[in-house]
Structures are given as C-alpha cells and as structure tokens.
Amino acid sequence: MAGGRHVGSDGGLAVSDGSTAGKIAARIPAARILVPVAGALSGLILSAVLLLALGKSLPDAYGALWDGSVGSAFAWGNTLNKGAALAFCALSFVVCFRARLVSVGQEGQLYVGAMASTATVLAFDGVVPAALAVPLAVAAGGAGGALWGALAGLLKVRFGVNETISTLLLNFVAIYLVGYSVQVEALLRQEITNIATEPQSRAVPEPLRLPQFDPDGASQAHAGVLIALAMVVVVAFILGRTVLGFRIRQLGGNPTMAARTGAQPDWLTIKIMAISGALAGLAGPSLVLGEQFRLRADISDGIGFNGIAAALMGSGTPVGAAVSSLFLGGLKAGGNLMEIRADVNAFIVLVIQGIVIVLVAAGAISMRGESRSILKQAVTTLRLDRRRAEELTEDAAGSRP
What we know:
Elements: E1 5-7, E2 13-15, H1 20-25, H2 27-53, H3 58-70, H4 73-98, H5 106-123, H6 130-159, H7 163-181, H8 224-241, H9 243-253, H10 255-260, H11 265-281, H12 283-292, H13 303-313, H14 318-341, H15 346-398
Antiparallel strand pairs: 1-2
Helix pairs in contact: 2-15, 3-4, 3-14, 4-8, 4-11, 4-12, 4-13, 4-14, 5-6, 5-7, 5-11, 5-12, 5-13, 6-7, 6-11, 6-12, 8-9, 13-14, 13-15, 14-15
C-alpha cells in the first residue's frame, strides 16, 4: 500500500497518498483559498444591501471602489503602499500567533517606529549621505518597534502581565508620546512661525525619502513595498525552515517540552515579542518616508489594528497575511474615492470595510477549525487503512502452506 505521512514545515501533519485520507487532506488548500474569497464576496453583497438602503447608486459606488484601488497606475501605487504598511503589521501578528502569544500592540509599535525613523532621518539630514541615512532611518523604525514589543515581553515574563493587556495599553502610551513629540519644538515639531503652524514634524527632505518605482509617472509606489515583500519571505523562511521557527512553534504547542529540549521560554518570549515589534515598527518609516513625508499625531488611521485583521484573514500564514493586506489596502484606497465620487459618507465607507473584514476573517478563523477536523479525519482514516492492510497481510501469511 503506497502512502505515508510526515510533519510539515508549520508543525502540522501532512498526509500524502492515494487513499481516502490523502483525498480528505487535499481539501484543505483549496478551502483556504475559497473560504476567504467567499467571505469577501459575501461582504461586498451585504455592503451593497446597505448602500441600496441608503439610496446610493451601486454602479457609482463600486465603480469608484474599483477605480480607486486598481483602476489606474496611481490607484495601484496607493493600494501597494497601503498594503505594504498593513503587511508589516500582519506579519507582526503572525509571528506571535505561531507562539500562541496574542499581541495587539501593532498600532503602538508602528507609532514608535515612525517617531524613531523621523528623528533619525531629520538628525542625519546634511550630516551623512542619503544612501546611508535612509537605511539607518528604516532600521531605527524597526528598532523602535522592537523595543516597544520587548517591553511587553519583559512585563509578561517578569511580572506575569498578560501580553494582550500590556500591548493594548502600550498602544495608547505610544500614540500620546508621538502626539507630545510633535507638540514640542525642542523635540520633533517644525519651527513655529505663526499661530497657524500645525503640530507636526518638518518635512523629510526629498533625497531622504524612500525611492519610488516610477518617480516621474503617476504611480507613487515606493521601496517600502519591496521591503514588505522581503519580510514576507524572511518570516516564512524563519518560521518554516530554521531552529528559531521550530522553537517558536514549540513554545506555542508545548512550553514544558520546549524547556526540556533546551529552549529558554522566558528569553524566547521576549525575543518573539521583539521580532514582532520590529516588523510592526517598519510600518512607521514606510508611512513617514514613503507616503506622508512628515510625522503627525495621526500618522496611522488604524493600520496596526487592520493588520491584525489581515493576519487572521490570511489564516495566520505569512503569504496569506500578505495577500490579505493587499486586499485591505485596495479597500482603503478605493474607499477614499468612493467617498468623493459616489457621495458615500466616510463613516459608511468604514462600515463597508468593516463588514468585509469581519466576514473574511470569520471564514478564515472557522477554516482553521475545519482544517484540524479534516486532518483528524485523515489520520483516523489512514490508521484504519493501515490496520486493514496489516490484517490482510496476516491472513495471507496464515493461508500459505
């Protein structure tokens, strides 16, 4: 009988044979694609009902959504930029998720990363070459986020503070820190020239901004998109192919066994929270150096929290989180044009986005439970197949002369 089973790179059981078990397990990849797609379509249909109830034109509304997300080079650039920032935060959640740590501090880590990168790039203006200043500013954003994430990890292992609570509360601390930094001229606020001077940092000089793919064209997509793609590959490799990835999965599955095999759970927890924070922190320089070109108190419009939704929509995998981030980036980009062209109130646009996110995320979460059920069924079937094969072998051996 041909067939077998092995432990996959994500720690799950993979069954590959021509038996019923293999066919059952083969349903999982297809379902992981179809379920989010069905959730997205259901969300758009339900949103259409809401728009009709408000007396809005569906062709105008969804036409604006399409044009604003993928209808032009400018729209594609906007979608890619927003998707990149979301992907950093989604990957941040995925790393913790694999270790069964629930971090919701991506918004605060983004803010700290934005503040650190802004301070770095402005301090290096005219001091070091742009070719060095920009990478250092990006690295400073990641370092700021890592510090903020490690703080939550330290609170957990040293004082037993639940990471969900600490990261949530640290979000507010980070947001207020950024707000204070752009209010005080001695810190990051631009020089006050009159009463109308806004509380924000001075503009990042053009040579110190992230390079754009097509600086002379309509698209404004910047190098942050490439950094996000690189992080998707790096995170997928670390989680699936390295000792650290094995330790992360082991900590989430069985901390006691992880300790017995040589891991240090406390130190590993802090390290995981720092890596997660660094990923979310990279969203800060992506926004400051690639899109807005200055630090504001409202630098993010909920990107950190939407990144969590993208991670859940992507079933907690790096690639799935990246695809979901691009989808949500398109919703954000298209929603802006929907508000302008189709006269859809900004709050209704947010409701529409929320409906789609909830339905897609709910489908993805339910799919995780379905996957476990399918795998259990596959293992049971495989064991029965093997038992029958052994019985047939014994009967054949007993019938021989």
